[in-house]
């Protein structure tokens, strides 16, 4: 793995003090076991049912559930269409070209007819070698287009079916070049996007065959469906987990400018695809993250968040923003300077997201805030005095678990001063006192009771702050009122040594019976 | 160790003898084996023996156990520096061979051997899996698939059991990249085969259960067991976060889960054994759905309603039954999780709370036969669960947790319903107290368990009832009951209530009941007299506002004779001979009451006779600790009142202490030395000759070999040095003391103790006495400095030099050091004193070193010499840093180096006796403020040669320190001219 990939979690090891809550957190783990979520609105593979350039000649039957019979019929028709294509390919006589195009078009129609195209039948009948042959150099555009379209829909199938495209990849990539017509290049990009969406292994193949530079050049123009398709294909191609592709992409001449331009000016659809590209760039490559931050990528992201109401767009834009904040400390320290317009803008859009009804937006916005809250005292005060705090406090007591956990990181970070290099970070008493007075402690004690060990640790760390930091020694009283002693006592024999020691230590220190108390 | 017929024969014989009832051959065999265990390939040979079908089964079993234990201590990475020298680790080639053999061996062995080998495999897995054992998982999977084809459930369950134990680490470790790489590897390989076997077994269960007769327990047992293991593995693999595979196949998993919660298997469940079997599976399912409910509620919510109602109706049945604990507990935990989640509205519907309370909570809180049995048969365990929070998994406690969970969103409703329930229970009791006493117990339990705990366990609060009136009407009648042995569980519950709410019960009310508490110390039930003791003990700790004790010595003194009498008598009840609650109460009473000689007499008699008894076989360390603390506090407080009592105490205690020393009761030695130190300190010189015998023992290097003794011995030695300095200087004893210092200071783990000894010598003896030894002492210290200079050692050295200086003057310090090697003083000063001075912590230490350093630069000709100007300046710089900056700015926390001390088997540990403690002595009582001392000394010095020192300060002090020094001068109105 390239060396710029693993700076991902900056969480410091945490001892009994809460101090290190103020470590930045970044989503991307080198190993993920959860499902990848593009929040299921954008699928990694896409079927092409209407021509990319709108010239579809198939009657698309929306929401039509095929009966079994229709299904069998379709499969039969597909097998014969492939046979037809085979004879057209060998045929060398007059009108050979038209015959080939017709056969391809028929196969493409069948593959575009339903939501569940007869891919298996086409593969069984031996479609791939024929289609590869139809992609050979010098073939007329119409033929190339139809062949690529067929491949696109085959690639949209199951994993094994997508893999069947392997022999076609070099030619599909070759047709991305400047010499190809736009429709052909776009269709090829679409097919490749589906292949890249399948998984890491195929992505590696595509990258080694040089798919990235020509795809990258396709996003340079100002508009058009080609740009959109290419951006989508790129977002699939750079998904990693190896960050090399992302780093390579940002280095391609003009790509950075194009990305910024699209984020600023393009329609929402294109901006959405480009935002997904930015998501993966910033999640994987520290180099790309640095470049984006230095090029003011924050500005257009914030504007989009402020002006758009499209969830499809807001999700990748918000996540990009979060990655830029978490991925590069430069973002918080030199771009998001309190007092600058951009900083107020960021807080404002995050507040907007916190208010949204959508769970993902709330969670991601809290996550971004938690990283900003890990910044300087001024950052903490900025958030503290913003509209975010009342929202966060409400979420801490009412939101689902995953959001509560993120929110707790924000509130926790607001209460500890940044580590100054030497010694433990101090707590910020005013914030702690006021947040506790506004009722946040019970939310943290709930986290202590959680089965999730990170959440439990955070809960314990905040509890420690309260015990140590509330004036007049009020901490213990407050903690006990929230039944915190009981919550901590659950860790008496916990298998996680760190949690066990932390909880037992707090109980002993603050609630232990004074031994020989009458001295 | 080579594998041949001879080895086989030899090992078989050894293992056979380890099973011998005769101690002689058994011990011989054990020691032969432990010797053989150090040879390479021993583990491999034992494993081969286990696999040898010709060998008798019981020998192979013994070998399997030995093999597992062998691995536990020796399967450590061969390059691990912390592995310790005790056991030679198994070498890599042998490890590889063991790993190649163990899976197939485990699967082909009989169940007893299989379980041992499975544990052994888990031990290996803990270190090696997956990175250093890439073949394990594929091997398990291919065996699993083979076994599945032939429905060989002995093997299937063996494999699943193994997988379960190696995956457990995913349940409690923090999310780290490494952990996730391991987890992903396990998921990629095992998630699909797991689902496959789970579904296969499920359909086998379905078809077997659907057949006429519903299948026998014998057929179904391995199947249910298999499903339970699958569920436990599911739990481990899903613990960190929801894996993609499990999300994609949630429907399949949840479908089966629900089936097990809602289906009855009459042919199996008709026996209690079979019911327990199915219940274990159900409990595992409940844990899984609780996990999903808590962490993946969004993905799980589609299944929530059906599971909530399934669990509810299951619980309604289970709650009526008296066994089925585990299932009841896990099922209630699931409902608790739902009640505190965003989906708590499931509980909002009309009548739901009422039903939960009536058909789930109350039945589970009611005493069951098992509780009564535990109360009678194992009082310690009962108290641990009932009083000390080890009841996290009891039905009673979890039922209350469920109520608390619901109350997070429906507090008022819960309070209303429970209050009514409590009234109902109490009126049911009132109609027929002897038949319905459990209703009252249930009511008391609810009130106590639903209360919120408060600091120090001294008080709690509750919204459920009015504590005062509940206490008067419900609890007091029980406590005033004349029969201390009637309805003991109800008495125990009432005492627990009193203890729990002690802060809320007004003094006059509580005080009136004091004689009753004393009376209950005489109850036959161990729980009851323990609770009575505990209640008294806790009452004596109650503080009023402002931190003043609510119950004073004046309050309790009239009761003390009766109280002490009953306490000592209670220790005579069967099984209460070492009752820690009673001993703790004795300690507390001795800490509060006036210790007149009338009380001290019987107490010391009682305590020493107990001490003599426990010396024979120390069992309960907590009891023993309180016992020694009681002795210590009795001696201390009684002698404070009447110093002449010391002789009586000595007369009583000496025989006991001598027994401990003479028979080497390891656990008690540190206590004995601390008590002796206390006695020595209370003595007036000349010290009685009987102590001098002990002094001799103290000076024998043998006494110091055990590290647990060292802190207590140091303390005792200090006491002797202070009280009997002359005796120390006789018969070559000082040489012996310094020999001990030498031994302690040479090792990094005891060097601080060594300095304590040395400092005590320096502080208490005349210079004339110690001066002949100084050369030797310096040599020892410089040697250590050369070999192993830790920061801790250097700081201790600076403190020692400072102490020497203030006691015996700068000139003696410089001269004795330079006598060892010319000019070494300045070298030590520059390299060690100056840089470490600013790291000194502790009020006394700081003052000592600051004053000594000040005197050095103001009095010592070596430093006042013009040639030493730079060193002079640096020293002052360091002093100013020490005095002007807060501790956290000058001292970086040094990571404690773990001591790699020799650990030879079991060692007693040192526990400090609080009440025999020593007050820290300030060797410099005449200087109050080291800052003032510094500037005043400087002012005086500079006045002699005006102009000289400001320049030196200017040249050598950091600017910040120059400012700080100036501020100090202003603050104390002194001038450096």
TrEMBL record, chain A:
Family matches, as SMART domains: ARM
A Pfam family the protein falls into: Arm
Protein name: Importin subunit alpha
Keyword Ligase: no
Keywords annotated in UniProt: Protein transport, Repeat, Transport
SUPFAM superfamilies: ARM repeat (SSF48371)
Superkingdom of the organism of origin: Eukaryota
Region (Disordered): 1-37
Family: Belongs to the importin alpha family.
Basic and acidic residues bias: start-end ranges: 1-14
UniProtKB/TrEMBL annotation, chain B:
Alphabetized InterPro entries for the sequence: ARM-like, ARM-type_fold, Importin-beta_N, XPO2_C, XPO2_central
Domain Importin N-terminal residues, every copy: 29-108
TM annotation in the entry: none
Keywords: Cytoplasm, Nucleus, Protein transport, Transport
Primary location group: cytoplasm
Subcellular locations according to the entry: Cytoplasm; Nucleus
Coiled coil start-end: none
Family label: Belongs to the XPO2/CSE1 family.
PANTHER family named among the record's database cross-references: EXPORTIN-2, IMPORTIN-7, 8, 11
Protein name: Importin N-terminal domain-containing protein
